[in-house]
Design brief:
The complex is a heterodimer of chains A (74) and B (244). Chain A has one domain: Up-down Bundle (F1FO ATP Synthase). In chain A, 86% of the residues lie in helices and 0% in strands. Chain A is built from 3 helices and no strands. Chain A is elongated and about 60 Å long. Chain B has one domain. Chain B has 7 helices and 4 strands. In chain B, α2 crosses α7, α3 runs antiparallel to α7 and α4 runs antiparallel to α6. The radius of gyration of chain B is 22 Å and the shape is globular. The chains are: A mainly alpha (74), B mainly alpha (244). At the A-B interface, α3 of A face α6 and α7 of B.
Chain lengths: 74, 244
């Protein structure tokens, strides 16, 4: 197997981790929506915290994507 | 690492515009430095010109400048409390620099200086050193009690303290990689889809539509990543000042 094919396979395997991140982000927003639905007055505080949680979880997605790019292009 | 011209990573290559060599150091003024200067100039122009002749009932631009100030001031007040006021200029500078850097990079033909790990790591390392110094200056060696969370059974201390220390030392890495990977992945994705537009002929409309949606998403990500960088800085200051 030549290097370029191995790189492509490696990059494909590396992004399997995004499945877990997708679940996590869905969980964050599902709890955000239900907490706003229960108590619309708390929207201001809860929304900020939800955005921080989303960004922190997405960071994990980007660590995986970073490894995929490193495998593919470096 | 020479990247091929056709690679989507070619957009991130740093080129020297004004070569300046001092001894063995290459201090050239690069395109990255140019866009950092542009970002700072824009921030300064925005803030200074908007608040010139400040009126009690603000004009539109003055409202925007006051909005950005109040946004970061509220963030610092909420997360760090009253003792965090001395650190507000630091958080505000970081927030505006990252925000303008991220937004400027979306203009076609410009350069994303926040998409370089060395830039984001420099910012994150500055935050980390500042927070650690503040913690030690305020609390002396008592700052090390931060690594023993409140209400932990004494049996677990030898296990948890190394884990806590490790997760504390991981902060500059996660802070920098989060911003760097978001920016690099976003811009690379835009370029990868753009590469498909011409090669698909008539069906090139689809990657074009995806690119339009992606740029909208990238504006959101630019603002969100600046906000997350700033709010994590505030949270780290809160940890250092209030310990537990």
């Amino acid at each position: 197997m030549d290097l370029q094919s191995a790189r492509m396979i490696g990059a494909g395997l590396a992004v399997i981790a995004l499945a877990g991140v997708g679940t996590g982000i869905g969980a964050i927003f599902s709890s955000l929506v239900s907490s706003i639905a229960r108590n619309p007055a708390a929207r201001g505080q809860v929304f900020g915290l939800g955005m921080v949680g989303f960004a922190l979880t997405e960071a994990v997605a980007l660590y995986a994507l970073l490894i995929a790019f490193l495998i593919l292009f470096v | 690492m020479a990247v091929a011209e056709t690679s989507p990573l070619h957009q991130f290559t740093v080129e020297s515009l004004v070569p300046i060599h001092v001894g063995t150091f290459n201090l050239s003024f690069s395109n990255s430095a140019l866009f950092m200067v542009i970002a700072v100039a824009l921030i300064t122009a925005f803030l200074v010109l908007s608040t010139r002749g400040a009126r009690l009932v603000p004009t539109r631009w003055q409202s925007l400048a006051e909005l950005s100030y109040e946004f970061v001031a509220g963030m610092v007040r909420e997360n760090v409390g009253h003792e965090g006021r001395p650190y507000f200029p630091f958080v505000f500078s970081i927030f505006m620099f990252v925000l303008f850097g991220n937004l400027i990079s979306l203009i076609p033909g410009s350069f994303a200086f926040t998409a370089h790990i060395v830039v984001t790591f420099a910012l994150a390392l500055t935050v980390f050193i500042a927070v650690t110094l503040v913690g030690f200056i305020r609390h002396g060696f008592h700052f090390l009690s931060f690594f023993v969370p409140r209400g932990m059974p004494a049996l677990m201390v030898p296990l948890m303290v190394p884990i806590e220390i490790l997760s504390y030392l991981f902060r500059p890495i996660s802070l920098s990689v989060r911003l760097f990977a978001n920016m690099m992945a976003g811009h690379t994705m835009l370029l990868v889809f753009a590469g498909f537009i011409l090669s698909l002929g008539v069906f090139g409309v689809l990657p074009l539509a995806i690119d339009v949606a992606l740029i909208l998403f990238e504006v959101l990500v630019a603002v969100l990543q600046a906000y997350v960088f700033a709010i994590l800085t505030c949270l780290y200051f809160q940890d250092a000042i209030h310990l537990h």
